[in-house]
């Protein structure tokens, strides 16, 4: 590099901002701890995307995608080997939440209910092909039994997976959206101001 | 360790080969055998993820197999295969799918989780992974145990305040949201604080600080004391100073100033750019060599302070501000830190210390002192001075607590408390003893957080099982206020315990205490928005409104100036007249002298009455 060229300016990329970098592990921890807890308590809910939703709302979709994908990759090694294959669903969740929040979908509890139901459909649609193609319908979760039941009653694999997804996902994602919204509402208002890119 | 000897490229290739092998493999039985006879023993030998493997074998595997059997029974065969009713084929098919994933994740665990974080960083960087990505990964690995510890702390703090003491499940569930939200807000607060620290210590940021430290001689006296009372502008002064490039600010809640990226103290030191020799001399001067292999999160407050100061010194800052972080330390550690700051003055441009009651240390008088100009400071909060409470209308039912031959030990460890016997009558007791003598263990037993080995506690003549009614006799005020703040406003926080215990005329008690602690102007603020001094006051006030006959105060004067201490002592005396008892753990000689107290000295796990 010649001396006449300007020295590199400080990066303004929001992803490498210290706050984003220190928040991402927190988001991953929220995803994994609550998710593992729900898994261990054999709840019919996944509850493994609350951190993703919170980060997408506070820091934007890129951070949300990193939290979601990161927590599922890490979770694959630490807790449940099935998780990494659903990273795409997590990315879709982060992007959906960001877009909806930009249009005021996370302003009040009523809107959050609508947004959460929509999120469930998105998540169901995105994860159905993965479950069907990669796992043949078996993921080791409670929903696998529903898939098995639908399969044995004569539906095609993709259709069974899709139907079972639509039965479970919206309730799960509704609960998760509400929890994320409630947690952010409880944050100290002055602290909330440190998140410049928040869409809530 | 064997795993560490594998070269990075071979390691990456092995993972790739596993993926291919697992995808090709069609025989679940073989996968299962590989898992059982190769991977499981390897992980046991290498000590990698042993806990996780046990968890898998004892918990996940039976459930998984159970589900697969159900699956096989219902579906009968792989999708698309004929004939449809063949449970064995269906189960085997499902087993293959799960076996692939399990084997893959096991291989990754053995190959990568066995590495030390430092090794992991160098290796992944060698494979061309970005630095920021590594930091985030490390942070995520380190934060999982941290969140677990914090969850336990917040839950215990809620129990110690008596918020969860009811036996009935619905009442307990009603308070779960408070605990969840408290934990979340506290963790986010720490994340924000940490982001600032990472920048200050040049762990992240546009321009990494060069590894060469200034070797020039120091300018003037190396350690300066910043004087002033609470809200005189000390913290504002130091915070402003730390915004200049390359300065580090360390505040009173010391655990927030650990990087949160390291699993051992050694790693924490290596995150700083100082050379090995410099780090070694810093470690020796602060006497933390014996802590190097420990997890910084599990250290005591005093040890954490030493580690944080050491890591900050190794980052070679232009100025290093230590704001009220030293008060909970015993005198010898305090003077060691101050000496170390002076000794390593070649690394630091200037060290500034602000703290209350530093004058108790003799060597303080030799240091240079500055007082920030208070007229320019404007407070963001409507804070009033702490005033002794005028009158207390409430009558408390005084409790005499007798403890006879209390024994306690943590699992599989040497006894912490041996045959402790003492009687507590309403009044002020001072619990003293060295670090690790069992002061906090005793407090936790009295608060009902721990169960003693033998039933030995008698309250007003009747034996009580305090561990079944946590926080009902003793309300325990933690040293760290952040873990025990749950509500979204100061007013709600003060009213939590009175509502839970259904105290009559609790409104007056709450408003009296808010008045007394100077909080009446900020009742609508979020407790976690306040500066440390005020958070500590809110947590104290919340204990005083709980209406319990006994209050345990762990370092109540942290961050509080002398006039606040005097008012606090006056309030305590007033409450003692109303039959409230106090058990106080404090390192501040000034505060202790203000109270007419009796001594309970813990030595080697037994009480020596003084």
Map the helices and strands.
The complex is a heterodimer of chains A (200) and B (610).
Chain A: H1 18-40, H2 50-59, H3 61-78, H4 87-102, H5 109-135, H6 143-152, H7 157-185, H8 189-192
Chain B: H1 2-5, H2 8-24, H3 28-46, H4 50-75, H5 87-113, H6 117-126, H7 131-160, H8 169-200, E1 223-226, H9 234-242, E2 248-250, H10 265-270, H11 276-285, H12 301-314, E3 319-323, H13 331-343, E4 350-354, E5 368-370, E6 401-408, E7 417-424, E8 428-432, H14 439-447, E9 457-459, E10 462-463, E11 474-477, H15 490-501, H16 506-516, H17 532-544, E12 550-554, H18 562-577, E13 581-585, H19 589-593, E14 597-603, E15 606-609
Parallel strand pairs in B: 1-4, 1-5, 2-3, 3-4, 8-13, 8-14, 11-12, 12-13
Antiparallel strand pairs in B: 6-7, 6-9, 9-10, 14-15
Characterise this structure.
The complex is a heterodimer of chains A (200) and B (610). Chain A is mainly alpha-helical. Chain A is built from eight helices and no strands. Chain A is globular and about 55 Å long. Chain B is an alpha/beta fold. Chain B has three domains: 2-115, no CATH class; 148-187 and 386-609, P-loop containing nucleotide triphosphate hydrolases (Rossmann fold, 3-Layer(aba) Sandwich); 201-376, P-loop containing nucleotide triphosphate hydrolases (Rossmann fold), CATH 3.40.50. Helices cover 46% and strands 12% of the residues of chain B. Chain B has 19 helices and 15 strands. Chain B has helices at residues 2-5, 8-24, 28-46, 50-75, 87-113, 117-126, 131-160, 169-200, 234-242, 265-270, 276-285, 301-314, 331-343, 439-447, 490-501, 506-516, 532-544, 562-577, 589-593; strands at residues 223-226, 248-250, 319-323, 350-354, 368-370, 401-408, 417-424, 428-432, 457-459, 462-463, 474-477, 550-554, 581-585, 597-603, 606-609. In chain B, strand 9 and strand 10 (462-463) form a beta hairpin. The longest helix of chain B has 32 residues, at 169-200. Chain B is globular and about 80 Å long. The model of chain B is unreliable at 207-220 (pLDDT under 50). The chains are: A mainly alpha (200), B alpha/beta (610). The interface between A and B is large, with 53 and 67 residues.
